[in-house]
Amino acid sequence: MDRKRENMTDYYLAFDVGGTTIKYGLVDKNLNISHTGKVATEKNKDGHILKMLKKVTSQFKNEYHLIGIGVSTAGIVGKNGEIAYAGPTILDYRGTPIKAELEKDFNLHTNVVNDVDAALLGEKLAGNAKGYTSIYCVALGTGIGGAYYEAGKMFSGAHGTANNIGWTLYDVKTKTNFEQRASTLSLQAKLAPLGIDPIEGFKRAKTGSSQEKKIIADWSLEVAEGLSNILLLFDPEVLIIGGAVSKQGDYLKELLEKQLKKILPPNLCKTKIKMASLGNKAQLYGAIEKFFD
């Protein structure tokens, strides 16, 4: 018997395209993720990313009943599901017509969304932002990105370049922006003289080690300065903190809330702060969130 006929469950194929890897998995209508894997981007040499999206899709389509494709990706996504802008970490990515190519080759509805937007949408679909209608998400990692959802849609500005919060708060004296002072890369640099990484730094801080505690507190104040602008400008119902550092859970949440009290006017901002709950699955869920509207 044809194996494809044995696997007639409806699936969405979700991708998460990053700077170094393309993660993927099948998502069923009950939001179960299975058959996950990853392949290298090869820095997009010779259009490698689009080639891999097609190759993986072809393999899954031959064995499973696909009803849609979702792609979360680094870069700014244009109105037609193409890459409108991409940074230097992914070579020759700008202009890649992901949606058009996948729909042409596989005759499946395809949704393409920026990876930070996808993180927010994933948390809205299946995580800690579920049930909220006004959501801001901040992805804290080697860089800092933002995404805003309000009144049933994502807001990315007239030219699609809004929420680039990492480039805000430029300081002319130090010649640094918010991202350079508050990313996890910045925290890593501050902990480097101690010979430890952020994971170990948080571990020691939680056990009361004063040196690591102070370094993380100072870093969290830098983070809070950026978050305060978001709260004052957008006043979302919930602010989701994403990125690997979100695994620090209540410890980081309470620390940020404490630092925000030093910055914000008393009793003005009512936004709830929550840590992202889906980890690496957030972008996969976000890639296919549109199919569940």
UniProtKB/TrEMBL annotation:
<protein>
    <submittedName>
        <fullName>Glucokinase</fullName>
    </submittedName>
</protein>
<comment type="similarity">
    <text>Belongs to the ROK (NagC/XylR) family.</text>
</comment>
<dbReference type="Pfam" id="PF00480">
    <property type="entry name" value="ROK"/>
</dbReference>
<dbReference type="InterPro" id="IPR000600">
    <property type="entry name" value="ROK"/>
</dbReference>
<dbReference type="InterPro" id="IPR043129">
    <property type="entry name" value="ATPase_NBD"/>
</dbReference>
